[in-house]
Amino acid sequence: MSPLWRDEVGVHLSPHRVLMLRVGRGFKRAVTATHEHTIICGDANDWRAPLGVLDQLLERSQWRGTSLRVVLADCWARYALVPWATELRSADEHASHARQVLVRLYGNAVTEWEICLSQSPPGKPRVACAMPAELLLALREMRGRHGMKLTSLQPQLLAAYDNWRHRLPASGAWFVTIGEGTLAAARLGVRAWDRIHSVRIGSDWARDLKRLQTFGRLACAHPEEGHVYVDAPTAWREKAGPVANDLHWLEDDSRLTSTLHQLGRMRRVAA
């Protein structure tokens, strides 16, 4: 079967959970299979356990003959804004510059990680994302063993932003996605992000949201700016308490049926 006519399997990997769904090709893009696997003793630094679970699940018949879209939890990603440098010419020079910025922020731990750079207008900073090279290599080898085309591979912040960008203002706001143990946020500037904030969270994650909200208001010149738009598990809105009242909680749009939209919806309900 041509890859253009294959169904798609969407996968969200996090330390404690593997989510999968199969989306049929066609105008309605219906979900034909779902699966949730909980990893009881998952470690935020260990991607091998969820990857091993995924490898076993892909042996099952309901996932065969498909292409693959993967979203990785933000605990396995490191972000940075890379300032525009007019003297850089080649892709290798830009990649080297991005690596230097990431190493200054996160230390030598990211020296061997794989780095991707966003496209940005001239003069604007670029978003750099680093993820463990071993993890990405293992995923690519896995899809090869199962004969699957890897259509996309994204960390949660980027995938969630792509899902919600049609609901966000052009600039002057924060976009926040809350995942398993991680809060990642991007401030929307004119034609590009101008800040990125990523922290590990526990039961006090609402405090981090409040800090972002306060900082956003202080940093904006106009009162209509500085709003915080939140992509989070459905049940967490109630847990946020009074903080929730001043935030823009992004709600599902059932008309959006792409694999990533369906996967994002499944993640918000499952958590």
**Numbering strands along the chain, what is their spatial order in the largest sheet?**
3-2-1-4-8
Rounded to the nearest angstrom, the radius of gyration is 19 Å
- The total tally of domains equals 3
Count of runs of 4 or more consecutive helical residues: 7
Could you tell me the number of beta strands? 13
What percent of the residues sit in helical stretches (DSSP H or I)? 25-40%
Largest sheet composition:
5 strands, mixed
* Global shape: globular
What does this molecule look like?
By secondary structure, the protein is of the alpha/beta class. The chain has three domains: 3-72 and 138-154, Nucleotidyltransferase, domain 5 (2-Layer Sandwich); 76-131; 157-270, Nucleotidyltransferase, domain 5 (2-Layer Sandwich), CATH 3.30.420.40. Helix content is 29%, strand content 30%. The protein has seven helices and 13 strands. The strands form three sheets. The chain has a five-stranded mixed β-sheet, sandwiched between helices. Helix 6 (236-239) links the parallel strand 12 (227-231) and strand 13 (248-249). It is globular and about 55 Å long. 34% of the residues are buried.
Quick recap of the structure?
The chain is 29% helix and 30% strand.
Tag the structure with descriptive keywords:
271 residues; alpha/beta; Nucleotidyltransferase, domain 5; 5-stranded mixed beta sheet; globular
Give me the secondary-structure topology:
Blueprint: E1 7-14, E2 17-23, E3 31-38, H1 48-57, E4 66-72, E5 78-82, H2 91-106, E6 114-117, E7 126-131, H3 133-145, E8 150-155, H4 156-164, E9 173-179, E10 182-188, E11 193-200, H5 205-219, E12 227-231, H6 236-239, E13 248-249, H7 259-270
Parallel strand pairs: 1-4, 4-8, 9-12, 12-13
Antiparallel strand pairs: 1-2, 2-3, 5-7, 6-7, 9-10, 10-11
